[in-house]
Design a protein that fits this description.
By secondary structure, the chain is mainly alpha-helical. The protein contains four helices and no strands. It starts with a helix and ends in a 31-residue tail after the last helix.
């Protein structure tokens, strides 16, 4: 295992752990801001792994397998947390969309295909006195 591969693995693990922590807290803005760093770390790891694989092959050392397993676990946790964040965002957006007032003329058209003008509802008051 080369020093470049070790450094790249540590960088990727750190990036995934930081993003996972933000996603666990549902700090989606912070998690989104980490995307570029995570991509760079993943690309650097892939390049270092490819370079290490081109060197003399003496089998896959246990250390490399352990590092790859740990990165795979972090990546799986990241995937699950991202899916959870997407579900939460959908619920929030749906709740906001349902709370918005609907336009009176929404979906109503005149015979010539022009949207119908909204009718104004006159003001009225009710009294409980008889």
């Amino acid at each position: 295992m080369t020093q470049d591969l070790i450094d790249a693995a540590v960088e990727l693990a750190d990036a995934l752990a930081r993003e996972n922590e933000a996603l666990t807290r549902l700090d989606l803005a912070r998690a989104a801001a980490m995307l570029a760093a995570k991509r760079r770390a993943a690309e650097a790891f892939e390049q270092a792994r490819s370079a290490a694989n081109r060197g003399p092959a003496a089998g896959k050392p246990k250390l490399v397998r352990t590092v790859e397993e740990q990165l795979a676990a972090l990546a799986e946790e990241n995937r699950a947390l991202l899916e959870r964040a997407i579900r939460v965002q959908r619920r929030v957006i749906g709740t906001i969309a349902e709370a918005l007032p609907r336009a009176a003329s929404a979906g109503r058209y005149r015979a010539d295909g022009v949207p119908a003008a909204g009718r104004k509802v006159p003001a009225f008051a009710l009294s409980a006195r008889a």
